[in-house]
Design a protein that fits this description.
This protein is of the alpha+beta class and 99 residues long. 42% of the residues lie in helices and 23% in strands.
C-alpha cells in the first residue's frame, strides 16, 4: 500500500487545487496500482506539530511519509512517483511504462 498524505488547511485555494490533482492522478493510475494507493488528508489547523513543520509550505504532498511536493503539485511528476512507489512495493501486476 502506498500512502499519499495531503497536508493543508481549510479555505486554502492551493490546497483545493492540490487535492484535485491528487484525486485526478490516482484515478488515472492503472487499476491495481490505484487500488494500492490510500489518500490521507491532514490539516495544519488541527495539528500543532504539522502547523509548526509545514505552515509556510502548504499544500504539502507526502508519499509514504516522504516529501514529494509543496505549494504546487505537478500531475506528471506525481503520476511517475506513484508508479515508482508501486514498483518498489512489489506491485508485480503493474509492468507498464512510465509516461
Amino acid at each position: 500500500m502506498t500512502t499519499v498524505t495531503l497536508i493543508g488547511k481549510p479555505d486554502c485555494h492551493l490546497c483545493e487545487v492540490a487535492h484535485g490533482v491528487v484525486v485526478q492522478v490516482v484515478a488515472e493510475l492503472p487499476g491495481k496500482v490505484a487500488e494500492g494507493v490510500e489518500v490521507v488528508e491532514k490539516s495544519i489547523a488541527e495539528d500543532a506539530e504539522l502547523f509548526a513543520k509545514w505552515w509556510e509550505k502548504i499544500p504539502v504532498v507526502l508519499i509514504d511519509d516522504r516529501l514529494h511536493a509543496h505549494w504546487r503539485v505537478a500531475p506528471d511528476r506525481l503520476h511517475d512517483a506513484l508508479l515508482d512507489a508501486a514498483r518498489t512495493a512489489g506491485a508485480a501486476e503493474f509492468t507498464g511504462p512510465v509516461r
